[in-house]
Design brief:
The complex is a heterodimer of chains A (112) and B (254).
Chain A (H helix, E strand, L loop, with lengths): L24 H23 L4 H22 L7 H8 L3 H20 L1
Chain B lengths: L1 H10 L14 H29 L31 H25 L3 H31 L13 H9 L18 H33 L2 H5 L3 H26 L1
Helix pairs in contact in B: 2-6, 2-8, 3-4, 3-8, 4-6, 6-8
The chains are: A mainly alpha (112), B mainly alpha (254).
């Protein structure tokens, strides 16, 4: 965290914190994890018969991949927790939308 | 005196002024907020797909949701072979790889290494272009087989209907179509809308990357003293990759 000694020193529009390199090791590790999960999805698709459980596995691995992309690639793991929260907490509305519209969809299927 | 004021700022609450509460630049914070709103846009499209699909699983025999494996089973140069999921997995691999080269460009930018930033940006642009080419081929094949924004020829076959009837499913329905019924329109329409919207994001991401690459070559960031623009372009590019993870999951896997 950088502090400014005079109130006029801090310019909110032009303020750029100095970005630091964390090296490439973690990035390549993330790449192999993402690739591994994708290959695992591919295998599961052919090995397991289609079912709700298989869909749950796919959705679970989708969220795991999202964690690695947002955390490591988009660097959110290393940002301040406040920033991470204002980005992540509003996504609960998406969960609400999913539950609401899937309920509506299945209700529609009884009418059709 | 200076030290005194500094101590005062440190002890003040985060929002009392004199410092950046999130310790990010204005542009990067706004990029995050934009990506959050974009995530809502994409999720509303994907949830619409889910709702349409849920409404077509139980009783509607003629509009039974098609199995993606029976449709997206083509691979370039391999005509007539049943290869579900293979091509789209290659596309996923290309996008993940271009995401890695993007993040390597960001990392090189932190070290102010202009040469490496240029090299990795070129790789990223090539990856994006390759992905767009793959998507164009995918669309071409799908349209060629009769999918339209307002129509869908991938209904169930007559044999499939007979089988459903033999297990007591959809008894009330009389088969009137020919060999194959028309499928539910939202299947093709939402495929075009969602992958099209994503593809448009990839396209604009490539354009942004090209602009940023030209700025790098011309030494704009070198004179500026930092490569933060690469980070902002990178955030957008990773978001495109993130959306593809879910498009891949919901359109192809499930």
């Amino acid at each position: 965290m950088e502090f400014y000694t005079k109130p006029g020193d801090y310019d909110p529009i032009n303020y750029i914190p100095h970005g630091e390199s964390h090296g490439t090791k973690e990035l390549w590790r993330t790449f192999w994890i993402l690739l591994g999960i994708t290959i695992f999805d591919f295998i599961i698709y052919f090995v397991m018969p289609a079912s709700g459980y298989r869909n749950l596995i796919f959705i679970f691995f989708g969220i795991v991949k999202a964690y690695f992309i947002v955390g490591a690639f988009m660097h959110l793991k290393y940002e301040k927790i406040n920033l991470a929260l204002i980005i992540l907490v509003p996504t609960v509305f998406i969960v609400g939308l999913i539950m609401g519209l899937l309920y509506e969809g299945s209700a529609l299927s009884h009418i059709k | 005196m200076a030290n005194q004021i500094q101590t005062t700022y440190e002890n003040q609450p985060m929002w009392a002024g004199g410092r950046s509460p999130f310790n990010v630049s204005y542009g990067k914070l706004m990029m995050w907020i934009f990506l959050l709103s974009d995530a809502f846009t994409f999720s509303s499209l994907l949830v619409q797909y889910g709702a349409q699909r849920f409404s077509n699983v139980q009783t509607a025999v003629t509009s039974k949701w098609p199995d993606p494996a029976s449709i997206f089973n083509h691979f370039p140069m391999m005509h007539g072979l049943h290869l579900p999921l293979l091509f789209v997995s290659v596309m996923t691999f290309i996008l993940i790889l271009s995401s890695v080269t993007m993040v390597l460009a960001v990392e090189a930018g932190h070290r102010n290494s202009k040469k490496e930033v240029q090299r990795y940006m070129i790789y990223t642009i090539l990856g994006g272009a390759a992905f767009l080419g793959c998507q164009a081929w995918e669309w071409y094949t799908f349209i060629h087989e009769g999918a339209r924004l307002d129509g869908n020829t991938f209904g169930i076959t007559k044999e499939g209907y007979s089988h459903l009837k033999s297990v007591g499913f959809g008894d009330h329905f009389e088969w009137e179509a020919g060999d194959r019924s028309n499928g539910p329109v939202p299947f093709a329409a939402l495929f075009f809308i969602v992958t099209g919207f994503h593809g448009f994001h990839v396209f604009s991401g490539v354009v942004i990357n090209v602009v940023v690459y030209i700025m790098t070559v011309r030494g704009v960031f070198e004179r500026r003293g930092h490569y933060e623009m690469i980070e902002k372009a990178g955030l957008y590019w990773h978001f495109v990759d993130l959306v593809w993870v879910f498009v891949f999951t919901f359109f192809y896997l499930i």
